[in-house]
Amino acid sequence: MLRKSLVLFTALFLLAASTACSKKPLTGAALQGESTLSMLRALSDAYETKNTAAFMSRIDERFKDRDSLEKELERIFKSYQAISFSVQPLKMLVVVEQRGPIRTTFNWHGEWQTAGGRTVKDGGRVTFELDPATNRLIAIDGRNPFLLQKSAVK
Q1: Which of 65-69, 90-94, 98-102 is predicted with the least confidence, judged by mean pLDDT?
Q2: φ, ψ of residue 129 in degrees (nearest 5)
Q3: pTM of the model
Q4: DSSP state string for 123-152
């Protein structure tokens, strides 16, 4: 009898715990914020794996100098053997307006390493402007974190 009571109690406890911890589906701004974070992760992953096609699929056609960005990325991917790029989501601000683009400001850090072992490190804070319908990058406010600055290369 004690064993049946313990099993029943455990089953009810697990059922109550699972329903108490269940999440409601994200809506509105929360959904846009989650989509923005996913897009930044996908962009970072494509950059680190040096996948130009995947990276450029996240860049909107309206992005200023889109073609020159693609050419510069290919040059960087050929020049550096290993790339590490991280976005710090704990220090991120996502602004979702009812009409207009999504703006996300975040800190980033990058390391580029040549085959000879020379490492370039850089980082900073930047704001990305995203199309809310496609979640693709429209513009960068500040310097582009994916392009090496001459001051960073030593």
Answers
A1: 90-94
A2: -115, 125
A3: 0.76
A4: EEEEEEEE-TTT--EEEEESS-TTS--TTT
